[in-house]
Design a protein that fits this description.
The chain is globular. The protein has six domains: about 200 residues, no CATH class; about 130 residues, Tetratricopeptide repeat domain (Serine Threonine Protein Phosphatase 5, Tetratricopeptide repeat); about 100 residues, no CATH class; about 90 residues; about 120 residues, Nucleotidyltransferase, domain 5 (2-Layer Sandwich); about 210 residues, Rossmann fold (3-Layer(aba) Sandwich). The chain is α/β, with parallel strands linked by helices and about 1000 residues long. It has a six-stranded mixed sheet, sandwiched between helices. The chain contains 36 helices and 19 strands.
Length: about 1000
């Protein structure tokens, strides 16, 4: 791929020769390294710079405020290309004069002062050029452009804005017919304006400015300008929370054909990069062309990859970038790349904690601190970069609670942060840095904390001091958004100091006023959540009183209404925000449902809303699983569901289990059980996996979930149950519940659905048992060098896969893809032939808490997102869509309660009606037997009822038809039908 060059402002300008022809002086601001987490979020719901085809995915802000998203991106120095136009150029029509030479000299002096951070002197040099009417308007416009840059460095934001407005007024707004020199100056001014807007958190406006500048460079066939413009746009997109679009935009810099303005970039482009593609990219960049460019472009790609959870790929690219920085001996570049490597390792450590992989967590944690230390120790690095390194390190230590970190080390880092904060001028960056620092000691994102976490050397007095400084600076800036962030942090402080909810509510209302004025929805939902939480905690006894109760509900409803609007962006968050999804998003849904169901008597409306709330939570979880908004809901008329089908919503709260049931029609019924019910299911799950005696536990679980509604089930003549399960309940197959004589599966066909709004209960019109049966039995020759398993790991063989596939062939029209013919290419070809409504895959695989760690083994690892894409078929009639996918040998990762959601997500994203998978790893011989019984039962039924066919297969094992050894629920119960049960 062709590579494009740029020259970087602040870090590269020192090595540029002084050029008298001003239009050839190119200065680019370095900040692609800021592709990290703490960036101000977009306020408006509309982005003028966003293309229409992306509107549904990209016009909404991220729901997490900056101070809770890490601080990797706080250095607001975007790529900005500033062009100077010489007075002697023919395009200006001016002969060279003594005055012109003097002006050139003054620009040279300004340049020198600016490079050496002597901004007051730089201002004094520009002063004579600003109002001299004898100087050409374009040159005065350029001088005001430099004036804006200088004021930005000093944190004089209003002066910077005034200067750039005057610059634009002087230069005018040229179009494609104006001379080239004026267009170049105009593009430079647009870039400066974009930098100012970015620094002030006006991400959409910054995007527009940089997009317009890029269009000018395209008209001029200026590849350097296009490169800088694309990198600028990527930075703004990242700031708006659109991680994938940002990463895809960086890819345009790396591929010459992508410079075409008409080319639409796929939202999956970065996501779909194979490891070999990443290796080819980082190897193909020629450091000799422009070393600073090579370093920064690789940084941009790596940080984009990190933001979508591709840590391995990000790490590879960043290490190459670091090698380049070391080759050119650029300390600033070394510091920036080290910071980015620290951020990648920190994200990997947090993800390993979520997946309960201790070894990976330990390794990534240690590497992160090493890289952060290296970045902070570079003496020539900017104070902002050093601050970011220390803050990110401290945040990682707090998040992962590492006992081996000595308190003295933490205290030293705290003192360094305090010192670095004093060196920064007032700006949104500084405000948010102070708030982030304070929130490390307040746990601002955890409303239920009653005591602040112990941060050595950082008392609540110092916390309050930092917040007061942040408040003053935010007021000085006139920045409503920043003021809202500061006030929210104050609310956390007051609740921790003395549980003063009245004071906290008052300050939160002030924050709401400012957030609404700034149209900052990503913080508004949190503020309304806080108001609801404060009201609930303040009135635990009197909450039943109608005014208090309904006011509290109203706050939660407002929070959820906003979350519904911005739900498409829940998954564009950086990985660290996804890491804390359960702290910052899930509680809003869960607490609202808890409030709705708390009274003894609950209305039909409240029951319906509670059921919808839990379904909405599971939709958000699936989006979070994939890291992309891929699900569309549709209203479901409950009266259209088969009369013999019951829908059971099981919602687990800390003190009780709530059951909401529908037996057909539009009426809901409510049942509840109090106590530590979660422990019963936890022990039952363990017993199932270990093949130990479990009937007693299974009977206890039956008494909690089924016994309360059994009379109603019988009265309604129910033959099948669709469960919408919550949290930990998803890890236990409902089929194993035991009434003392029979398992539940012996009485009812069972299916699981995350939401009826996602999985409409429709059946195929003319079902035929035609199966594409694929599998791999021998893995000896297949070495998978991927850390999702382990480098160089060889998988164990599955001895009975051929029996399983041959058994299917005996009862169904089947095409087999076995061993060497089971490749990704052949799988895609078979699925897209539209001949087979059923796809059966028997191979190793794993379902985890996140799509990045969920895969099946074909001739390589096929990740869940790739599998979902392969399963999507283009049949407008829908008659030949996949009806069922069976994953017979896949297992669920340890400690994952999202396996069912992951299965559902794959099915929904691909348009597959149903999916059958296993909740844990099972003996492949028993699996082979069960699958043969399943297809026999399916082929014998005229109604193509998958839930009933699976029931018959499981009953066959229960009755010992496959051998006495397989009667244990360990062998037959893990297989669950997710989705359409018909």
């Amino acid at each position: 791929m062709a590579r494009r060059g740029v020259v970087f402002f602040d870090r590269v300008v020192a090595v540029l020769s002084v050029v008298k022809i001003l239009w050839r002086w190119v200065v680019l601001g370095i900040a692609i390294a800021a592709f990290t987490v703490m960036v101000p979020q977009v306020a408006s719901s509309r982005s003028p710079g966003v293309h229409p085809h992306d509107a549904a995915l990209s016009l909404n802000p991220s729901p997490l405020p900056p101070f809770e998203r890490g601080v990797g991106g706080m250095d607001f120095l975007p790529f900005s290309q500033y062009w100077e136009k010489g007075l002697g150029d023919e395009g200006m029509g001016n002969p060279r004069t003594v005055q012109q030479q003097t002006i050139d000299s003054q620009f040279d002096r300004w340049r020198s002062h600016y490079i050496n951070n002597d901004y007051e002197a730089a201002l004094s040099v520009l002063e004579p050029l600003l109002n001299d009417g004898e100087i050409h308007r374009s040159i005065r416009g350029l001088a005001h452009n430099y004036l804006s840059l200088t004021h930005q460095k000093l944190g004089n934001w209003e002066a910077a804005r005034t200067a750039i407005d005057l610059s634009l007024e002087l230069i005018g707004v040229p179009d494609a017919r104006r001379d080239e020199s004026t267009q170049r100056i105009f593009a430079a001014i647009l870039n400066t304006r974009g930098q100012l807007q970015f620094a002030l958190g006006e991400m959409e406006l910054a995007y527009d400015s940089w997009r317009d500048a890029t269009q000018i460079y395209r008209r001029l066939s200026d590849e350097e300008g296009v490169t800088g413009g694309l990198l600028n746009q990527a930075q703004a997109l990242q700031g708006m929370g659109f991680a994938r679009r940002a990463c895809d935009t960086v890819l345009q810099v790396l591929d010459a054909p992508l410079y075409s303005e008409q080319r639409a970039v796929s939202s999956e482009q970065c996501q779909g990069l194979a490891m070999e593609d990443v290796v080819e990219i980082q190897r193909s960049i020629d450091i000799r062309e422009n070393p600073a460019v090579s370093v920064a472009v690789l940084q941009g790609l790596a940080n984009g990859l990190r933001s979508i959870g591709e840590f391995d790929r990000s790490r590879i690219v960043l290490k190459r970038s670091l090698e380049m920085a070391e080759t050119i001996a650029s300390e600033e570049s070394i510091a920036r790349v080290s910071l980015d490597l620290g951020n990648t390792e920190a994200s990997a450590a947090r993800r390993a904690r979520e997946l309960n992989i201790q070894q990976d967590e330990d390794i990534a944690f240690d590497r992160a601190l090493q890289y952060y230390h290296r970045a902070a120790e570079v003496r020539t690095a900017s104070p902002a970069l050093q601050l970011r390194s220390n803050l990110n390190a401290l945040a990682l230590i707090r998040d992962l609670t590492r006992e081996e970190i000595h308190p003295n080390d933490i205290e030293t880092r705290v003192r360094s942060i305090q010192t670095q904060l004093t060196a920064l001028p007032p700006s949104r960056f500084t405000v948010e840095a102070r708030v982030k620092f304070a929130c490390l000691a307040l746990n601002c994102d955890r409303l239920s904390d009653t005591e602040p976490p112990a941060v050595p050397g950082f008392s609540l007095v110092e916390v309050e001091n930092q917040l007061n400084l942040a408040k003053e600076e935010a007021q000085q800036l006139g920045d409503d958004r920043s003021q809202a962030y500061v006030l929210e942090a104050f609310a956390s402080l007051y609740t921790l100091q003395d549980r003063n909810f009245d004071r906290a509510k008052l300050i939160t209302l002030q924050a709401i006023e400012r957030a609404e004025r700034a149209n900052t929805r990503e913080i508004l939902y949190r503020l309304y959540w806080r108001m609801g939480y404060f009201s609930k905690e303040q009135n635990p006894i009197n909450l039943e009183l109608e005014p208090i109760y309904f006011n509290t509900l109203n706050y939660y409803k407002k929070a959820l209404d906003i979350l519904t609007i911005i739900q498409l962006d829940l998954n564009t968050l950086d990985p660290d925000s996804r890491f804390s999804f359960r702290d910052r998003v899930e509680p809003v849904y869960r607490e609202y449902a808890d409030l709705l169901l708390r009274p003894e008597a609950v209305s039909q409306e409240a029951l319906q809303i509670a059921a919808q709330t839990i379904q909405a939570l599971q939709i958000a979880e699936i989006n979070d699983f994939f890291g992309i908004a891929c699900l569309e809901t549709q209203p479901v008329d409950l009266t259209e569901i088969d009369s013999d089908t019951a829908t059971v919503y099981a919602i687990l709260f800390f003190d009780r289990l709530e059951i909401i049931a529908n037996f057909g029609g539009d009426r809901f019924y409510r049942y509840r059980e109090f106590g530590e019910i979660g422990l019963t299911f936890e022990f039952l799950e363990i017993s199932l996996k270990e093949k130990s005696e479990l009937k007693s536990l299974a009977q206890q679980a039956y008494q909690k979930i089924i016994a309360p509604l059994e009379t109603d089930l019988q009265a309604a003549e129910v033959s099948q149950i669709v469960f919408v399960l919550d949290g930990q309940l998803r890890s236990v197959p409902m089929s194993v519940l035991y009434d003392g004589e029979r398992y539940l599966i012996e009485k009812y066909a069972i299916a699981v659905a995350p939401s009826l709004q996602l999985l409409a209960p429709k059946r195929l019109e003319t079902p035929k048992i035609r199966v594409l049966a694929a599998g791999r039995q021998n893995f000896n020759s297949l070495v998978l060098d991927d850390t999702r398993i382990a480098p160089g790991t060889q998988l164990s063989n599955l001895k009975y896969i051929d029996d399983e596939l041959n058994g299917i062939q005996e009862v169904a029209d089947t095409q087999q893809l076995f061993e060497e013919t089971f490749t990704v290419e052949n799988l895609q070809r078979g699925v897209h032939s539209l001949k087979y409504p059923i796809l059966h895959i028997a191979t190793h695989g794993r379902f985890s808490n996140f799509a990045e760690s969920t895969f099946i083994v074909v001739d390589r690892l096929l990740r869940s997102t790739e599998l979902a894409d392969i399963l999507q078929v283009d049949d407008p009639s829908g008659r030949n869509d996949l009806d069922l996918v069976v994953l017979s040998a896949c297992q669920t990762a340890q400690e994952s309660d999202r396996a069912v959601l992951g299965m559902a997500g794959i099915a929904i994203r691909a348009g597959v009606r149903s999916i059958i998978g296993s909740l844990w790893n099972v003996n492949d011989r028993s699996t082979s037997q069960l699958m043969q019984y399943f297809y026999n039962a399916l082929s014998d039924r005229d109604d193509f009822n998958k839930a009933e066919a699976l029931r018959q297969a499981q009953i066959a094992l229960i009755r010992g038809e496959a051998g006495e050894a397989y009667q244990n629920p360990h062998y037959w119960s893990p297989f669950v039908l997710v989705g359409n049960w018909r």
